[in-house]
Amino acid sequence: MTDNARLIYLPLGGAGEIGMNAYVYGYGPEGKERYILVDIGVAFPDMDGQPGVDVIFADVTWLSERRDRLDGIFITHAHEDHVGALGHLWSKLGAPVYCRPFTAIHASRKLEEAGQDPTAIVRICDPWPATYDAGPFKVGFAPISHSIPEASGLVIDTPAGRVVHSGDFKIDHQPIVGEPFDDALWQSIGDAGVLAFICDSTNVFSGHPGRSESQLAEPIAALVASATGMMVATTFASNVARLKTLAEAGRANGRTIVLLGRAMKRMVSAAVESGVLTDFPPVVAPEEATEIPRENLMLLVTGSQGERRAASAALSRGSYLGHELKAGDTFLFSSKTIPGNEVGVARIQNALAEQGVEIVDADAGFYHVSGHANRPDLEKAHGLVRPRILVPNHGEYRHLQRHVRVGEAAGMIGVLAPNGTMVQLDGNAPGPVEHIEAGRIYLDGTAHVGAYDGVIRDRMKLALNGLVVVALVVDEDDAILEDSWVALRGLPEMTDDNADLAELIEDEIAELLPRLDNRTVEDDDKLAEAITRVARQVCQSEIGKRPEVTVMVSRLMA
């Protein structure tokens, strides 16, 4: 271990929220550390609070300013909240990307879509005990069960000791697709001595042991057998094991399987290409399936979280690729609704109900199991790894706080480290040593917009308050020509007294303009400020709103 060196952990995203995972590890003298980044994912916007935003990712400015000391990016698995920002942010970081084969397919696609050559960037890795050197770090991919193939925890060996980064995981010894949880493997990782365990906290509030993916086959098969019309099911496209269970249930009941939705087709293809899926039931193209009797079809569709452009939403609105739902059909939601997506899911389910479709969801627990460890399984993982320090991640602040208490009750040193908290893991008193501004970036169309840039805030103001546009002309002698012109957007045209709101604003501005002194008329900002004040006063008086106001001053040149 180098004199004055330290081992640090810094979450830039994913700690204090669920999604947008990005975790930095550093080792070396303070200010000269070498770094690795674990995961680089996205979060999805709240469309009510972030209108127009496509996805959100961590602000990596702090790390990009130190990119000359970044030795690698390690991706634990192929979920969007762990790999989805790679294409958007890689050019700011420039480090090689390490991941296992299934994840590499998705990472490479992200880079290609961003105009990068993945063959020069992505390094495909074998599972533990293979390890990969990145500066002072030696990193291995330890297979772990989750709701997507080839999920891995990371074993990160450093001169200061071993760190284990769990990634997303559950304890499932029969996951259908992908590697089962291997108690002996994780016991052996812990036997070498673990300084710190950075651990998934998603289901820390669930007090019952987690259930296996294999427990769903029987109830799903029974449900499909009882369906009389067309059978439709939606789940997370990345949950290849669930897709296989659903497809096998359909095939066992004489139904032809159809995949609807680009993400679903892409995930199945990637699973077959990487070799993690070898016996998926045959499928037919949506166009061919229109010739098959409806009662002999099973559609597996995207959109379990209420996404407006996914196949589920399209079917709820009428038809999709020649297929439409009718009364008596069955629609299974084999998924848990992520907090924040309730409105979108309810919108689809209500539209389906209006069509007479029988809706079956996962509330009863028969048709979905979580991909994350519940508290008893977290406690089991703690016991296998046996770290000195527990640092919870992948959870909202309340999840991290509860997980710290669970760890401390078992004798570990618990460290609460939300986004931006730099933690020194080695030494006699591990804990926070510095706070970094950990912001977020919005993808707004093709533009990257900072959370504090005001763009989304201004858009929200427009949505909530409406807009008044005022235009006027000033001649070369600073005389205002004629009256102003007013247009309204997002505001009622008529007041309760049946008066034209735009004309009322124009009349008040007409009374204002002759009273303005020369200094105000000569200054665009002062002129706009005076007009804005009057426009808002009229709107407040007439309709009870204080809208946003844009004043356009056109000045004639001599």
Task: Compose a concise summary of this entry.
30% of the residues lie in helices and 27% in strands. The chain is α/β, with parallel strands linked by helices.
Q: How would you describe this protein?
A:
This protein is 30% helix and 27% strand. It contains 17 helices and 32 strands. It folds into 3 domains: 5-208 and 370-450, Metallo-beta-lactamase, Chain A; 213-360, Rossmann fold; 466-555, Roll (Ubiquitin-like (UB roll)).
Keyword list:
558 residues; alpha/beta; Metallo-beta-lactamase, Chain A; Rossmann fold; Ubiquitin-like (UB roll); 3 domains; eight-stranded mixed β-sheet; seven-stranded mixed β-sheet; 17 helices; 30% helix
